[in-house]
Amino acid sequence: MTSRISSVDQIDDTGLLPSYDFAVGELIGGKYRVEAPLAEGGMGIVVRATHLELDCSVALKVIRPAHVANEEVVARLLSEARIAASLHSKHVNRVLDVGRTARGIPYLVLEYMAGSDLCSYLARCGSLR
């Protein structure tokens, strides 16, 4: 059974998330099974997925369907992928793959790093000083 992904905060009783055209449990690119939403921003959503062949977690960054026709947004995502792929640092998630869903929506596959973001950490622990 699958539940639709649309917003990290707006999951209805059926698990439907209407602004994204894929679902929890769905395969993306023939090898990534969507597991759970992680974060959402103006450009898209990031979900945790499982790489079925390698049996490991990855992060999928997917553009909002409303932005697919916007060449500037798509170019920005691909530029982000190229730049991130050229960086080699323990502080930057590695880009593992890029592609499009069966419906043509661009996505990035990133190294999955469990934990919290800096903003959450600072809210919990205060200044780094």
Explain what this protein looks like in three dimensions.
It is built from two helices and eight strands, in the order ββββββαββα. The protein is of the alpha+beta class and 129 residues long. The strands form two sheets. The chain has a six-stranded antiparallel β-sheet, covered by helices on one side. It has a two-stranded antiparallel sheet with strand order 1-2. Strand 3 and strand 4 form a beta hairpin. The N terminus is likely disordered.
Fold blueprint:
Elements lengths: L2 E2 L18 E2 L2 E2 L3 E9 L3 E8 L4 E8 L7 H16 L8 E6 L5 E6 L6 H8 L4
Antiparallel strand pairs: 1-2, 3-4, 4-5, 5-6, 6-8, 7-8
Q: Please identify the oligomeric state.
A: single chain
| Major sheet details | 6 strands, antiparallel
Q: Radius of gyration over alpha carbons?
A: 15 Å
Structural class: alpha+beta
Number of DSSP-assigned strands: 8
Q: State the end-to-end CA separation.
A: 47 Å
Strand percent estimate: 25-35%
Summarize the helix and strand pattern as letters: EEEEEEHEEH
Broad shape? globular
Q: Could you give the order of strands across the largest sheet?
A: 3-4-5-6-8-7
